[in-house]
Amino acid sequence: MACPSVFQGNRECAMSGQVGHGQVQDPLHDIVAVTDFSDSAHDAVFRAGMLAVTGEGRRLGIVHALRRGMLDALHDLLAREDDEALLREADERARVQLDTLRGELAEALGLRADTELVRGRAARVIDDYARQRDAGLLVLGECNEGFVTELLLGTMSERLLGRTSRALLVVRRIPRLPYQRVLVPVDFSPDSLHALDLLSALAPQAQKVLMFAAEMPYRGLLDEHTAGGGLACLRAAAESTALQRLRALAESHGLSEDACECVVMHGEPGPAVLTCGERVGCDLIAMGKHGRNRLADVMIGSVTRHVMGLSPCDVLVAT
Fold it and tell me: Domains of the chain by range and CATH?
């Protein structure tokens, strides 16, 4: 967890990437940060705060969900019979912690945040709150709900992503600076292009690395003598085509060669994204919720799920 002192005097640093948005609505005009009061959630709230102060007129809401299952567990642990009293106590503690978070943000970033306590199934009531605010981005840390819960229901980020139409930012690192270097895996699907669009608001000053994972179909059936030039020739042709498309994409988004690097990786997309992220030293990976094959993706794309689960850095998922 980053204590408030990490952010003291760093409002100018958070504001260093500030952008104006003219008549076009800022996709991050309203941001919702999810907290379970863990260290990871604390970092997520402050990352959300840093994003809020970098855009003119942005609002931030901090939400905590009181789940019935959690209250039942407390009831059993404490052998309490008065459910209403237990609920009131949990409610009061949560409100005190929310007020503390709001005060820390105001002191460190000069930001006035809204706070909300909701009850029910966390993913549902949090998404309902974000929808009521017309939020463009949900921000959360790595919630530790236990192995059995994650095995049966998936992580909180997966459950939220499975139901929300909002972009989702999963924070894994202490937010000391605006994002500096962002990896953008691209398969030229609408969602992956939307991720690139979002970065103009979320990380306008960051260096962008556009990456395409070139999978060679039927690779096991090919050898160095296949198709006259062999496997190496086919790989080179695929890489050249992908690089041309990436450079055209960068140009269409107004990204100069100094502000953007284009990279082609070979192999399965999930591992390729993580390998590329490590090589280029990114502090954020921005990708789409679905790839080109939405039917195969079902709820959440397999590549997105893989990266969300294993990435050591923050992950932005566009929907």
Answer: 4-170 (3.40.50.620), 181-318 (3.40.50.620)
